[in-house]
Amino acid sequence: MIRKIRSFRQPSPAQVWATESSSVQITFGHASAGPITVTVGEKQRTVNHEGGPGSIVVDQLAAGTEHQIEFTSRDETVSLTAVTRQDPPGQLLSRFATISDLHIGARRWGALRTMTESGNPTPGHPYRLAHAAITEAIAWGAQLLVIKGDAANHEAPSMFAELGHLVDDFPDLPMLLIPGNHDVDEEATTLPLTVGDRQLPYIRKVGHHDLPGIRIVAADTTVPGRGWGSLTRVHSPILECSSEADRPTFIGLHQQLQPGRLPRQWPMGIPAPASNKFLDDLSSLRHSAMVSSGHTHRNRIRVHSETLVTEVASTKDWPGVWAGYAVHEGGISQTVRRVAAPDAIRWTEYSRQALLGIWEDWAAGSLEDRCISHQWSRDFETLLS
Ligand SMILES: [Fe+2]
Ligand SMILES: [Fe+2]
What is the pLDDT of residue 105? Predict the structure, then answer.
């Protein structure tokens, strides 16, 4: 209620943004320069803050526990509560990350495209935020990155060249790259086969990479020149690729799987019944699966039958995130962290004001729309047997 009557021009409040089994990310819209101390039980962490918005991660916390947190800056002391999650059953096997909706080359934001960076710096904020997101995901332990579309703001050679520079800066990180509708808005007539000196392919059908405990599949759902998506070309290849795996599958798409024929929110994704048929077919495979998309620039989680289905917000505008996945023998956990680099979070805090502040809650979703520990139903039974 307090958030509803707070002006959208006021900074976002200090809040528990993300939780995992042993860590929480606390973000804040403004704090004066000086020390910030976060106290969780007997643990205390103090950082010297340069002023403005920021993020602090507190780790080594007990799992499955309600923690009382005190956040103290020069301006205020705020009491927060965070419940750490339980890890999925079994050993931790691998970690990977996703980013989407980088929109590299974009210069403007907001309904009327009036929000810009002062001084129009080069590289622009989409590149800097994506770079910081990848850097932070690697530090978190990501062994692979999926770029889930709208990597470029338009199908333009200069933007693909900038994307190439970005991926070349992380030569040791395996990546899967799929197009979004913005990458093919010239009907895919000039979409390059690869980007960067590393020649990272734009996957035009289905690609995959295996990590311990998971097969990661990325599939192109774009319809060149259109905003909505389609599974027509990739429905069967995804199922084949998933069914050939000896482990559960993560499926990264650009457009979201709509539960209904008509979209309940903008932009349009992949309409039902094709989406529901796809999820029903996934449920019939021997191993479990989850699906995650971008495109909507918002965070949401639902479960269809036994399949976890998530949407993760954009890297480049509020809230400015990457998603981390920890793969266990009996399940997978998703955490959505805000990009914490000071330069990045200053922009995302500003971009929160889009749509007269409606964008703030709409894009962020709740903590339950971002972070989840999910048990593989079929593979957990195998683990027990
Ligand atoms: Fe997008
Ligand atoms: Fe999109």
Answer: 94
**Which ligand approaches the C-alpha of residue 222 most closely?**
2
- CA 120 to ligand 2 centroid distance, Å: 24
**Edge-to-edge strands, sheet with 372-375:** 175-178, 145-148, 92-99, 321-328, 331-338, 372-375
Whole-model pTM?
Answer: 0.96
CB under 8 Å to 199, separation ≥6 — which residues? none
Neighbours of ion ligand 1 (CB under 5 A): 101, 150
| 67, 160: one domain | no
- Is the Cβ–Cβ distance between 238 and 289 less than 8 Å? no
Which of 83, 101, 135 is the last residue before a domain boundary? 83
Q: Nearest to residue 6, comparing CAs of 367, 363, 360?
A: 360
- How sure is the predictor about 301, in pLDDT bands with cuts at 50, 70 and 90? very high
Q: Is there a single domain that holds both residue 64 and residue 126?
A: no
Give the separation between CA 324 and CA 332, rounded to whole angstroms: 10
